[in-house]
Design brief:
By secondary structure, this protein is an alpha/beta fold. The protein has helices at residues 2-28, 39-51, 63-77, 99-105, 126-139, 156-164, 184-189, 198-201, 222-240, 242-246, 257-271, 279-296, and strands at 31-38, 59-61, 81-92, 110-117, 123-124, 145-149, 168-174, 192-196, 205-207. The chain is built from twelve helices and nine strands. The longest helix is centred in the first third of the chain and has 27 residues, at 2-28.
Length: 297
Amino acid sequence: MNEDLADLSARIDRTNELLQRMLAEVAKTPSTHAIFVDAGYLYAAAGRLVAGTEDRRAFDLDAEGLIDALIDRARTVFADSRLLRVYWYDGARRRIHTAEQQSIAELPDVKVRLGNLNANNQQKGVDSLIRTDLESLARHRAISDAALLGGDEDLVSAVEAAQGYGARVHLWGIEAPEGRNQAEPLLWEVDSQRTLDLDFFKPYVSRRTAPAYEPMTGRPTREDVRFVGAQIAAKWLAARGRDTLVELLPGHPYLPGSVDQELLVEAEGLLQYSLRGQADLRRALRDGFWDHLQTQY
């Protein structure tokens, strides 16, 4: 009997020793955090706050500088933690990177995840990507804290999934000029909330200025209008990306009605001349637009 008790005591001692070693290893393992950025929310809210518009074509975003600023802010918030990486979620036609998204993907410690863009330039599938990453990283104990920059109510399930595996989710928002730009159910669900203000974003968002054009006197020539069409194509290509505009090529020489109207309005603004009822000049405008696009592909 005494031998049995001695053997049991020795086993308990060994078990306690193993537990102490495990606890010591856990104590030495640093906490890890990751930053999750819903780019659709970022562009809309930061654009509205700094540039007064949600239209991406109307302002420039220094994504590299902003990502560095987010990383620095996370270092302050999670002082005893190390960064795993920044996850950047955006939409793209057929999930093909635009030039801007490619440059972001090439940044160190940044992972770009792409959902689709529909015909109305609305993101599809981004929320499910965020949920998948949050849940997977939390389940595998890859992160202890997640900083989530977003505002969509659909992100509630992503928060719940990560919390279910023990991760803490901290919602970061962008100051709204009026009202709220984050869903209340999302605010209720997270572990903490933090708002980034105008001063935080000012260095990284700048409104684009339209190039100065000399106003036309009298009726412009076909070559004048053709040249403006090419200029607009070049501007759109830089702002919207090759993948967006390449989808127009199969329809040549026709443009979708909404695109044609937008081209007309912008051309009239640059020319300071109405092209309504001027069929020959409208054709010249489209010709110049198509000419530039076709030289790029």
